[in-house]
Amino acid sequence: MRISTSTLFSEGVTSMNQLQVNLAKTQTQISTGRRIVNPADDPAAAARAVELNQADAANTQLAANRTAATNTMALGESILGSVTTLLQDAKTLAVQAGNATLNPGDLRSIASDLSGRLQELIGLANSTDGAGNFLFSGAQGRVQPFVEAGGSVSYQGDEVQRLIQAAPSRQIASTDNGADIFMRIKNGNGTFQTSPNPANAGSGIISQGRVLDATQYTANRYQVTFNVAAGVTTYDVADVSGGAPVAVLSGQPYASGQAITFNGIQFEVQGAPANGDTFDINPSSNQSMFATLSSLIGSLNAAPAAGDPVATAVFQQGLQQSLGALDQDLNKVLSVRATMGGRLRELDALQSTGEDLGLQYKQTLSRIQDTDYLQAISQLNQQQLNLQAAQQSFAKVSQLSLFDFLR
Q1: DSSP structure class, residue 380
Q2: Alpha helix locations (H) across 170-226?
Q3: Sign of the torsion formed by the C-alpha atoms of 87, 88, 92 and 95
Q4: What span, in angstroms and rounded, lies between the C-alpha atoms of 326 and 187?
C-alpha cells in the first residue's frame, strides 16, 4: 500500500492537533478546578450537576428565609419580654394601691404612673422591624396596628399570620397578629367573670372564683341575690340565661368569705351586702390589655376618701378585677412567647438540617465536577510526552523521500 506525501502530512497534522486539544482541555481542567468544562465532556454528570446546583440554590434561599424569620421572631419575643415586664410592674402598682393607708392623692399618683405605662404598652404593640414593618399587624406590615382614639385603643391590622417557607414542605409563622396577643384576652378567671351590680347599696365584694369541675359547669349566666331580714342575710342563686330566672340555690345562709359553690364553680363574697344586692356570673368575654390598664387607672382616679364603706367596696372590687385581668394578660403573653420559643427551636433544627444538606450537595457536586488533580497532572504529563513524540515523529517522517536514498 502506497501512502502519499500529502496523506502523511495531513494525518500528522490531524494527530498533533487532537493531541494539542486534549492537552489544552487537561490544562483548563487543572486551572479551573473543574473536570466538566463543557456539557459534552460528560453529559450525564453535567445534567446531574445542574440538578444539584438548583437544589443547592433552593436550600440556600430557604436558609435565608429561616434567618429572616429567626431575626423577626427574636425581635418579637424581645418586645413581648418588655410587655411582660410592664405588666408585672403594673400588677405591683395595683397591689400597692390596695394598701389601706394610701390616700386618694397617693392613688392618683399611681394612676399617673400607670398612664405612662399604658402609653408605653401602645408603643411596644406598635413596634416595627428593621425594614419598617409593624410586627403585630398581621399581613398588613405597613399598617399601624393599634390606634388610640376617644380614650380607647382599636386594632387596625388583620387576622393573618405572616408565613415563611422554612423547608420544602414546611411553612412557619414569623409573626403573631396583635389582635390575638393584645385584644382577645378572656376576662375574669378565663372561664367566667364575676361582677357586682352597679346599683348595689352594700359593701359586698365578690372574688374572681374558680372552676372546680369543668364537666359540671355550663356557660350560662347566673345571678346571686342577697336578702336581709331581721339581721339575717341569705342568698339565692338563679340561672338567668333564658330570661325567666331558674332557681339553682335558695335561702342559703350567708357568712362573709364563705365559699358559694354550684354547677362545678366556686367563689366568695366578702363584706356586708345590702338587701336586694345582686352579683352577676357570666361567661368570660374578651378584654384588651389596654382596656384593663384604662379600667385600673379609672378606679385609682375615682378612689374615695376613707369613711365610705360602699364606695370603698366599689374601689376594692375594681382593684381586684384589674388584678385578675392583669394575671390573664400575663398568662396570654407568656403563652405566646412559649409558642414563639417552640417555633424558634424548630427553625434552629431546620437550619442545622439545611446546613448538613448544603454540605452534602457541595460534596456531591465536588465528586461529580471537580478535577482530580493527581490524575489530571499525570494525564497532562502523558499528553505532553505524546505530543512531543508525535512532533518528533512528524519531523522525521516529513524528511523522508526517494531522493534521500538516491543521493
Answers
A1: H
A2: 178
A3: positive
A4: 9
d(CA 336, CA 181): 7
> Which amino acid is it at 84?
T
Grid cell listed for 54? 438548583
The percent of the chain in helix, strand and coil, each rounded to the nearest 5, is 55, 20, 30
Residue 112 identity = S
Q: Looking at residue 134, what DSSP letter applies?
A: B
Q: How far apart are alpha carbons 117 and 140 in whole angstroms?
A: 26
What type of residue sits at position 299?
A: S
Beta bridge partners of 260: 267
Give the helix ranges, DSSP H, for 205-288: none
pLDDT digit string (tens) for 148-180?
998 899 999 998 888 999 999 999 999 889 999
- Residue 80, all three cell numbers: 413581648
| Sequence letter at residue 271 | G
DSSP bridge pairs for 152 = 149
pLDDT attached to residue 43:
76
What contacts 405, CB < 8 A, 6 or more positions away? none
Q: What pTM was computed for the model?
A: 0.81
Q: Which three cell numbers stand for residue 362?
A: 457541595
Render pLDDT for 327-349 as a digit per residue (tens, 0 to 9).
999 999 999 999 999 999 999 99
